[in-house]
Design brief:
Blueprint: E1 11-17, H1 21-29, E2 37-43, E3 49-54, E4 57-62, H2 63-66, E5 69-74
Length: 76
């Protein structure tokens, strides 16, 4: 499942990031890396951006970036 498929309030664990090294490094600097748990805080109307929380960091992710992050949804 991709991060872009989640909706507000969903929790997930990052399984894999399918991106080039520059984007993976950028994500890593925000704490977005394999094994981390995240919470979807909100989405724009057309889901062009998503706000996610990883640890205590809030991050805005573009739709094309969210498509590159594979996650496993955690049922709450």
């Amino acid at each position: 499942m991709k991060l872009s498929e989640l909706t507000k309030g969903d929790k997930a664990v990052i399984i894999k990031i399918n991106a080039d090294k520059a984007l993976r490094d950028r994500f890593s600097s925000f704490g977005v890396m394999r094994g981390e748990e995240l919470l979807v805080k909100g989405c724009s109307l057309a889901k062009q951006t998503m706000e996610i929380e990883v640890g205590s960091t809030l991050i805005a992710v573009r739709a094309n970036e969210a498509d590159k992050i594979e996650v496993k949804k955690i049922e709450s």
